């Protein structure tokens, strides 16, 4: 069994006053592709290294296949790890690099040959087995590192920022390669990255971390559509969510000091009434703002336009706050133009100003008031 359970796992380095990882709880099912994502220093790589056995666990329990493995040697955990820097031996050929671990385990020569050739076929390395790492591209070296993990027949793959040294085009290619490999092998995979695009495109579930703590666990769709707090909402999405500070007056959200007004929908009014909230932050994603042809109560001026083919990002200021609108490219729109904005009321998020947590939404369905996440 390759299911993994982390129970209140913590890490505190000797001499440090603070925990690098705190109260980490996660159940990983067999064959899942879990991505740990967050800014630098959030504890994601430390968590991965604790699972691998490369870091001691300061508190809590790590279970693999139902067995506590806190004190089990890394080589006995049934884990293969792929590092950021490939960790290939420069004096060895591709074949020798991939075979190295098997030879150390005294695996018979004919079995080593069969396993390496099978992995090379899967990864498109068959014609490169006699080459040395210096003769390979970055993408080919990463394939060799993956091949070395595959030949071990491990039930769990751990990957620590494996694509960060590749250029943009190669990263896209290798993302697809790793996804295909996961589907083919069905290996439980835990993948660490600071790149939310990698997380969103690769994961079955994402674990978003900040300052050593889990902020949210969910599918890519869940963390995007229903962020738990302001941090998750700003971190997930490219670009991140726009936020507006203001006050509730009657059935309106007054942005800033009254420079703009957003009329609250009935469901938003019910939500605020339920939570008795007055001090809130309104969040809306760039693609959920429309540049309106008609005058609205929300007016801005174009500061900057970033064009990317069919889409463009329009930067504007509203009540002294910088916001971004994502829309189809419009060659007629210029810097300095006045624009009117409208928000998609079905995509508005309201956050408590003090806790920064999202207010759980209320939905009216067939006349019945329901609470959803």
UniProtKB/TrEMBL annotation:
A cellular component term, taken from the record's GO annotations: ATP-binding cassette (ABC) transporter complex, substrate-binding subunit-containing
Molecular function terms from GO: ABC-type transporter activity; ATP binding; ATP hydrolysis activity
Transmembrane segment boundaries: none
SMART domains on file: AAA
Top-level lineage group: Bacteria
InterPro entries: AAA+_ATPase, ABC_transporter-like_ATP-bd, ABC_transporter-like_CS, ABC_transpr_MalK-like, ABC_transpr_MalK/UgpC-like, Mo/tungstate-bd_C_term_dom, NA-bd_OB-fold, P-loop_NTPase
UniProt source species: Siminovitchia fortis
Keyword terms, alphabetized: ATP-binding, Nucleotide-binding, Transport
Family annotation (SUPFAM superfamilies): MOP-like, P-loop containing nucleoside triphosphate hydrolases
Keyword Transport: yes
Domain ABC transporter positions: 4-236
Example of a GO biological process term: carbohydrate transport
Keyword Lyase: no
Name under which the protein is recorded: Sn-glycerol-3-phosphate ABC transporter ATP-binding protein UgpC
Pfam families the UniProt entry points to: ABC_tran, TOBE_2
